[in-house]
Amino acid sequence: MNLALFDFDGTITHNDTFSLFLKFSLSRKTQILGGIRLAPYIAGYKFGWVTDRTIRTKLCQVGYIGYNADSLKHIGQEFANKVIPTCIRENALERILWHKQQGDQVVVVSASLGVYLESWCQSLNLDVICNQLEIHNGVLTGNFINGDCGYLEKVNRIKNKYDLTKYSTIYAYGDTPNDYPMLGLAHKKYYKWQEMH
């Protein structure tokens, strides 16, 4: 059996679903106030001084602290049903289905949020490793459980969940330096849909 590891945003999708979901799930007021509070981080990110890990963590801490967990779950399912299908690259979907036809284990490994990504992955019967928002007494804390799932953390979580020695060939697909550690696990690696040698 083979293992196929797919990054989500930018690899399976045309666009960044993380920021689309922030707009979809947060009130206009929260977006504006959060934008003001995080302006130095957002500017720093644009200039390359702040990592995507930091910006993701800060956005969720500001946006989702105190948010009702059940209502976000419903919003996540709605987003998965209505918005994500409009973002998917046709070639990516074809490749996922090709792997499934081969009987491969297909896993989406992403720093996106489980609150919508899990619904989409379930609809295609795919495994998923991603960012999980922490819930306390039915309310979100704004923090991630076990931190942000990017860079080396992608590799740590893959190794924790799967015995890589069991797979004859490992495929990996990514589109940013965030995915380099995961691509490093693979026998066949694709960066922006071009095979790397």
Automatic annotation (TrEMBL):
Record keywords, A-Z: Hydrolase
Pfam families: HAD
One record GO biological process: L-serine biosynthetic process
InterPro entries in the cross-refs: HAD-like_SerB (IPR050582), HAD-like_sf (IPR036412), HAD_hydro_SerB1 (IPR006385), HAD_sf (IPR023214)
One GO cellular component, as annotated: cytoplasm
The keyword Repeat appears for this protein: no
Gene3D superfamilies: HAD superfamily/HAD-like, SG protein - dephosphorylation function
Keyword set includes Hydrolase: yes
GO function term, MF aspect, one: L-phosphoserine phosphatase activity
NCBIfam families per UniProt: HAD-SF-IB, HAD-SF-IB-hyp1
Protein name: HAD hydrolase, family IB
Species per Swiss-Prot/TrEMBL record: Acinetobacter seifertii
